[in-house]
Amino acid sequence: MSQISKRKRQNHATVPRSPNFTKTSSKNLDRQYLNEGQPEPAVDKFKAALMKSMAKNEDKAAANPSCTKASTLAMERRRLELENKRKQDEAKKKEDNDRIEKQQRVSV
Questions:
Q1: What are the start-end ranges of the E strands in the chain?
Q2: Total-model pTM
Q3: Is 1 exposed, middle or buried (0-12, 13-18, 19+ CB in 10 A)?
């Protein structure tokens, strides 16, 4: 009775069928990447653009070195300024020490 009470769609089961395969004629492929032989390296447009931009950057680096004559002169000028300032500080410190010694001799 339970079989009778079921609806028709609940009672129906799917039957597996094999697909209808069609045979195609075999022929040589005109695609190079599928044929036998030495495969040529594939270079896509993005890789080509990257290589081109890298070549441009190398040319710019050779044309504009990071250390130019002006920057070298500026560094040398700054180095001289720092040396002069250090000498002045040492001279001032020596004067202060001499003055303090002189004052101590007078007070004793």
A1: none
A2: 0.36
A3: exposed
Mean pLDDT to the nearest integer, 86-91: 96
User: CA–CA distance from 22 to each of 19, 25, 108 (Å)?
Assistant: 9, 10, 122
What is residue 81's predicted lDDT score, i.e. its pLDDT? 96
CA distance 40 to 30: 15
Task: Name 35's Cβ contacts closer than 8 Å, sequence gap at least 6.
Answer: 28, 29
Helix-strand-coil percent breakdown of the chain, rounded to 5? 60, 0, 40
Helix (H) or strand (E) holding 8: helix 8-11
Q: Is the pLDDT of residue 44 over 70?
A: yes
pLDDT at 63: 60
Cβ atoms 4, 12 nearer than 8 A? no
Q: Which token pair is 65?
A: 């070195």
Residue that has been written with the tokens 């050779």 in this structure: 62
Question: What amino acid is encoded at 35 in this protein?
Answer: N
